Here is the input.
Amino acid sequence: MNIASSHCSIGGATALLGALLIATTLAFAQIQEERALGAVREQIETLQRRLEKNHAALESRYADLKQAETASAAAAESLRGVRGRLDDQRRHGRELADQTRQANERLATEREALASQVRISFLTGHQEALKLMLNQEEPARLGRMMAYYDYLNRARSVRIDNVSRELGVLAELAAATESAARELASLEREQQRELDALEDLRTQREQAVSELDATIGTEEEEIQRLRSEEQRLTELVQELKVALAEFPVDSQEPFSKARGSLPWPVTGHLLSRYGEVRAGSQLRWQGVQVGAPAGAPVRSIYHGRVVYSDWFVGLGLLVIVDHGEDFMSLYGHNEALLKEVGDWVAPGEVIAQVGDSGGEAQTALYFEIRKDGEPVDPRAWMRRAEPQPP
Here is the structure.
């Protein structure tokens, strides 16, 4: 018996040790991955600074635009937060109003029941009870009637307690409603301040765009600017590929198998198509532009990991997702970026919102798919020729 117990104890200790070892290993792996990911983020930031240095002339023209658009994105994010809290507070106010209505209904019911009991008590009268007590000829009836009066008194006491409780509930609800109204008014004032700040930043952006346009005097200068932006984007993608070589995106469903079945990242209409002539017939589009309302959700087309999420010359607020097998998808001109470098995304997950950052004249998403750093026609990968609603 002792030997069996000993074996059981050893077995339990071994299982516990194994579980601890697995947990420790997983925790260590997570820490290592976070550290490595931090190093990759630093590499990307270094890459961004180096690209800015290599394209100093171009960057100087975009500096004010970048500052205005990133500040505008931050203000828009703050405004979304305020509006979210406003929605919560308004919902809370509606809940309080509903609770107040229900409490008033309960109070009315209790008051009516109490009034009915008072009327019954008044009609029977205390004199009847006194007569019964003095009348010794009907002791049986006396017992029944005294029990009835006792029941009425207890029922009336319960009703009075219920009325008092409901009055207390209504007082608490009134205080909560007043507090909610003050909070709502405060949030509405905050929202107006955020709207004013956002409007000022949009004015700054328009000025920066106008100044940028003024520096481009000829068609040749415009072509040179666009060519420089294309070169810089190609450098970014190639550098990201090298920096993330140690972080492959493994998937049980390879991206290459999804050709012809992917959803469009946004609902809208095509403004430009891959390979179409751009800027005086010397350049062609390397992706597509999809016109869509400002703030419309931009969704990842497939499983992957965010490898870039920042402002980029020519494309404004840009997200790049690595899908493995040397495939990447790019989403530019956004109003807001909702994912950070290192975040895993699923097909259809919202990663950004449509905007006009990067100096665009209209709200639209710029979308590319790249293989080995080279752009490919996105439409060949989509399940539909046009980005229609699902």
Observations:
- The radius of gyration is 36 Å.
- The helical segments are 2-54, 56-134, 139-215, 219-243.
- The first helix runs from residue 2 to 54.
